[in-house]
Design a protein that fits this description.
Largest sheet: 12 strands, parallel
Structural class: mainly beta
Shape: globular
Distance between the termini: 21 Å
Number of helices: 4
Oligomer: single chain
Radius of gyration: 28 Å
């Protein structure tokens, strides 16, 4: 199945260092810093010796001198894996002396990956001396996920540094082969004999903190399974497989497609955007790659007309085209890099012609350092839109504003940081991180890492008259202050989230909203649950004081530390009239109609019996497992390139701006040199 593919010339990008921060931050220098191109006709079969049927994989050179040199590097990462690197050079001299040297080295390392990396190089020449050198390293490992070696280039061949399979994505980093001008990268399922060439834009060049050049390739759009990746250097415009490397048996898992965005009762039944439900691109999907240098000049052909510039493309596309569109962001994209913005308050706008227009659109970042800076994203009149694997920093009003008549949206695996301060006292960290309003419904917000956000997510603006179902799951509310979420009128499913040191309140119900809270993990929250003007919030003036209350039903949540909770039906301080939440033993348990909000007199509506939640109760994680999954997968690939450690002893109760964190966010830059490769060498 082929896709439409566009290639754009990208010059070298230069970036400066992130400003130094104080003791609570870690080093934010990037250490390791799409869709596949059309299926290659290369039908090379991967074997333990990395042979290929492709005729372009070999080179022959003749000269006046001849030497023989063979190097083999084999890297196996299993429960009892072995890595061997051998280099031998032999020569015969006509002089009166002969020199021979032999060396052997052995090392041990740890890994549980079931992958194998093999690189082999052979060259021939003539010399006058005889020398022999042998090096062997053996490794037995027990760590998980990623296997890493710091071995330098062996006899000018590609040397893989690290690799990892993730959610419908894999990546590899490697040291360069000598004299290579570029690299062709191929991927295949391990059970297949045919490789597919990946888009050249997915390959980037970085410089490490120790001033060594290395390369990284990310391959999105993979369904769950086991994969092999083959990296071949291009030397003098010819692909040289003998100096390449292969990694075998890389495990890829699926994204978690649950929640209301995937409810069978929703208008479209799913929210996969440009992708199929198995994680592969839809047939005919058009892929464009956007960087800071081409955001004004990137082009797309829509309905026979060519449009130029990212916002211009989105404006035209949202007017109605049936083919799927996948926009892939590489590196840091700032507001000034864009051709224009169509929303003066938010930034990049995606606006359909009328309510709930099916767009088949995905906006995603490539790798761990894809970032939009200085603006956010506005969605209006859209459906079937996916936004994933992007960092959002220093946005204008909201980070992502889901505004008016949207449905089947899936916002996931996002890192969201401080926005620009607003004029109101509660906007010091920006306004809303992800806000949902205007009868927007059947939406899933999942695996988002909220970094000390002030107001995480508002759901509803009082004008809504229907339930407008929203799910929040596996989000990391990392020392964020409030609105986790704060719904009005809507019916909200909050499950398997990690609430980590939240200084104001976590889940807050108002304006006749209904909330089902299941199997969440709360660590030292000030108030896990708030219902307006009752329970712990009775008499409080800082939370929706003019609004009626909301009903919260709690099932299976785990709370460690934190403030007092007033349940309607449980505990020594239970109150049937002024409570925070009702504690149930199962999802099916009925909340009696006698329990009503103190202000508004509303009983729980049991929406979980009325509509498909998109998440069966038996498939929920336990709270402890949810916390582990959140820490492993929330945010961008491998947690993104921005690193920060919060001081729990201070930040669990602090809801003011962290000055050093704000400075780091405001002046964030990519901290390594990036080059992307777009010329085709066959």
């Amino acid at each position: 199945m082929k896709k439409k593919h566009l290639i754009f010339a990208l010059p070298l990008l230069f970036a400066t260092s992130l400003v130094a921060c104080q003791a609570k931050k870690t080093d934010n220098n990037v250490v390791v810093p799409s869709s596949q191109e059309e299926v290659s006709s290369d039908t090379s079969t991967d074997t333990s010796t990395n042979t290929s049927s492709s005729q372009e994989d070999s080179q022959t050179s003749t000269s006046n001198e001849t030497s023989t040199s063979t190097s083999t590097s084999t890297r196996t990462s299993t429960s009892t894996s072995t890595t061997t690197s051998t280099s031998t050079s032999t020569s015969t001299s006509t002089s009166n002396e002969t020199s021979t040297s032999t060396s052997t080295s052995t090392s041990t390392q740890t890994s549980t990956s079931t992958s194998t990396t093999t690189s082999t190089s052979t060259s021939t020449s003539t010399s006058t001396t005889t020398s022999t050198s042998t090096s062997t390293s053996t490794s037995t490992s027990s760590s998980s996920q990623t296997s890493t070696t710091t071995t330098q280039v062996v006899d000018n061949a590609v040397e893989v540094i690290s690799y990892k399979g993730d959610q419908e994505n894999l990546y590899a980093t490697f040291y360069p082969a000598k004299d290579a001008s570029s690299y062709n990268v191929y991927v295949k399922q391990s059970s297949s004999s045919t490789y597919t060439k990946v888009d050249r834009e997915l390959l980037r060049k970085y410089i490490s903190k120790t001033n060594e050049y290395y390369y990284r390739v990310d391959v999105p759009g993979l369904k769950a399974g086991t994969y092999d990746i083959n990296i071949r250097p291009v030397i003098n415009n010819v692909e040289n497989n003998s100096l390449g490397a292969t990694v075998s048996g890389i495990s890829v898992i699926s994204y978690d497609r649950t929640g209301f965005a995937f409810s069978s009762d929703s208008q479209f039944g799913s929210s996969n955007g440009a992708y199929n439900a198995d994680g592969t691109l839809k047939s005919g999907a058009q892929v464009i790659y956007v960087t800071k240098d081409n955001a004004k000049t990137v082009t797309a052909s829509l309905g026979g007309t060519t449009y130029t510039g990212l916002q211009t493309i989105l404006d035209a596309y949202a007017k109605g085209y049936s083919d799927a569109l996948d926009i892939r962001i590489i590196g840091k994209l700032s507001k000034d890099d864009l051709d224009k913005i169509s929303s003066s308050s938010e930034g990049l706008q995606i606006k359909g012609k009328s309510g709930y227009q099916n767009l088949n659109l995905t906006i995603e970042g490539v790798g761990e350092d894809a970032t939009i800076y200085g603006f956010g994203i506005l969605l209006r009149y859209t459906a079937n839109v996916e936004i994933r694997n992007i960092g959002i920093l220093w946005f204008m009003d909201d980070g992502i504003s889901i505004d008016t008549s949207n449905c089947n949206l899936w916002i996931h695996d996002i890192d969201i940081f401080y926005g620009q301060p607003g004029s109101d006292n509660d906007q010091k960290k920006g306004d809303g991180s992800i806000d949902i309003k205007g009868h927007s419904k059947y939406i899933t917000i999942s695996y988002v890492h909220f970094w000390d956000s002030g107001k995480c997510s508002l759901s509803g603006m009082k004008s809504e008259s229907s339930d407008d179902y929203i799910s929040y799951h596996h989000n990391w509310f990392d020392h964020s202050d409030s609105r986790h979420p704060r719904p009005r009128t809507m019916s909200i499913h909050v499950y398997n989230n990690y609430f980590d040191g939240n200084s104001k309140y976590c889940i807050g119900g108002a304006s006749d909203s209904n909330i089902l809270s299941e199997n969440n993990y709360f660590r030292n929250p000030c108030h896990p649950y708030y219902s307006n003007k009752q329970g712990s919030n009775e008499g409080a003036a800082n939370f929706g004081s003019k609004e009626t209350g909301g009903m919260i039903k709690v099932v299976g949540d785990k709370i460690v530390g934190g403030g007092t909770i007033i349940y309607a039906n449980s505990g020594s301080n239970a109150s049937a009239t002024s409570f925070d939440a009702y504690l149930a033993q199962s999802r099916s348990e009925t909340v009696p109609d006698t329990y009503k909000t103190l202000f508004g007199s509303m009983a729980y509506n049991h929406f979980e019996r009325i509509v498909d939640l998109g998440m069966p109760e038996e498939d929920l994680d336990s709270p402890d497992q949810a916390m582990l999954n959140v820490k492993a997968y929330a945010g961008r690939v491998d947690g993104g390139d921005f690193k920060w450690e919060f001081d729990d002893t201070v930040e669990d109760t602090n809801y003011e701006v962290i000055t050093d964190l704000q400075t780091a966010i405001q002046y964030y830059q990519l901290t390594s040199l990036i080059q992307t490769f777009i010329d085709d060498y066959e």
